[in-house]
Amino acid sequence: VGLQGVMVKYYDLLLLGRRSASAMSSGVKIAEQASVLARGVLYGEGDSRNFNLDISEIKSELSAVDLDLGLIEAVLPQFSGLLVKFGVPDVSKKLPEIRGLVSGASEFLGVFPEMIGQNGAGKKTYLIVFQNSSELRPTGGFIGSYGIISFDQGRLLDFKINDIYSADGQLRGRIQPPDEILHFLGQPSWYMRDANWAADFPLTAQRLEWFLTKETGENVDGVLAVSLPAVQKLLTATGPLSFPDSKDVVSANDFYHKAEYASEINFFPGSTQKKDFLGQVAQALLTKLTGSKDLDWIGLGQAVSLALSQKDLMVYLNNNLLQKTIEASGWGGTIVSGGCTNPETNCLLVVDANMGANKANYFLKRMMRVNTLIGKGGELENKVAISYQNNSPNNSWPGGDYKNYVRFLVPVDSEMTGFDLGDGRKPKLSSTLTAEIIAATPTDQFLVFKNLELSAKSVNATGSAFLSFGTYFEVPVGQTRTIIFSYRPGYRMDFKSKEPMLAMTILKQPGTGSDLLDVVVDYPSFLLPQTPALVLSQKLIYNIDLSVDQKIITRFKIYESH
Questions:
Q1: Do the beta carbons of residue 252 and residue 239 sit within 8 Å?
Q2: Each residue's pLDDT tens digit, 281-318
């Protein structure tokens, strides 16, 4: 009777409501089951024999949620305008993120039983390093505290937090540090607190395990790295935490300040105040996770997922099979990933290391601009400009001058074409770094240390994930400094293709925030861009941020007249 279109749309609207209700119902069940599972693991409540059944039920509900969300994602666009008129927010853009969260949760449950010693896996012990991103280091920040957590048969056995100096004080003998730590940080010996010098977290994790064994005699089954932003994200989801032994309360807004006060004011190596504060926060967090009936589990899951995607939380497991799952999910902090796997790639990672023993990164604003010039033969040249604005109020703690050792990690077959620190000095390239070479550098030059940046997968091989170009510079209080690094990667566009493609991967350094990132592509006149972007005369501009790894694909067509 001519009403088919109307009835189909009416049916789709009913379907949207039904699937939304179904997804919410499954979400409630998941939250309840997750709470029961958490109490069982952390406090031994319930029957451990039901552990696998609990996991299976949660995964089943996650599959149901994913199916519902998939159908909602397909039907929702035709009703988004109507729903907005009735005051219902448009969530269509958030659905892929939520589905990613559901997928990640399902993948995590696949490795979770093994991680906590269930199903006959035996006792599992892990090293947790707490990284202060206000004093930035390659994998997230200076390691001021560490914890040891152990599980057996799906139950938490023990969890202790210690000051890093209590472990480092037990190291016997002198360990030769990386050259940069020796000459620019001024540390003649290497300790666990500085073991996170490698940008590749799996390699750093292996070194942390080595130091832990040498210093304390303890052996672990893996390493978890937690940066301050990860804790702040969790506190945002859980709300303020109260300490049972005091009237103090900590929230996401004041966690940084209270953590800094506990760790720095009247601190001396061997003192307990740092570990006591972090221990209180950890215990209060565990209590709230297992005791609160109205906890926002969806918000908590989003906080954990965000911390993992932004590398504020990273995981390394000694079990190779489980580690492959971790890395495939993007939780491992490895630099051998995505567009950086093959030698002939167009990949970039900028790694800062605060060498000033202060918390200047808390006051630092960093912006990056990558300008790619495409030559007429398909060859590329990348110019990376980074602006550092030091907003420290003065030279008093916790701020001060930003003393930074920066490394530009680029494909191994790249060629440096320029380096400018903005002070008129010229770069002096060296493949070795010694006190004599530093002292012999003329005053009108600055030293650029060129070497291979190793990963856990290449440390015993001849290949490497990246070539590193590093140098030291300072940004005084209240000043801004822009440095520019230029290089030619081995990557070349294929103009024989009907639709040549430019691919670029820019990796995020753990511990950094959402730095503004502009990517500018200058292309020859015979190319016609096919990718949505701001298009000017022979120029494409992408305005994004570096809160997560960014992979930018630019597609072109070639004018037939060419």
A1: no
A2: 887 887 777 666 667 777 887 888 889 999 999 999 99
